[in-house]
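Project standup — Tuesday

K.O.: blocked on the structure for the chain from last sprint. Re-posting the sequence here as requested.
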Amino acid sequence: MKKYNSFKELDKDLKILKLEAEISKQKANIDLVYLRRAFSFTNIVAETASYLGQKAIYARIGSQILRKFGL
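H.V.: unblocked you, prediction finished:
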């Protein structure tokens, strides 16, 4: 436990703690905004469409390679 020699030192540390708490709250709010965007309906639909499109492209490339080698 820290011992303070004056109220000025105590006030300084209290202000620092208050600012650190405010920074933590702001970081949490920013994280929440990013999570909401990541799990929005339009983002999920876009990610799903991208994933399925990528799978279709890989399947087509794979089938062309198999045909080229006569398998």
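K.O.: great, moving the ticket to review. Residues 1-39 form one domain. The chain has two domains: 1-39, 41-71.
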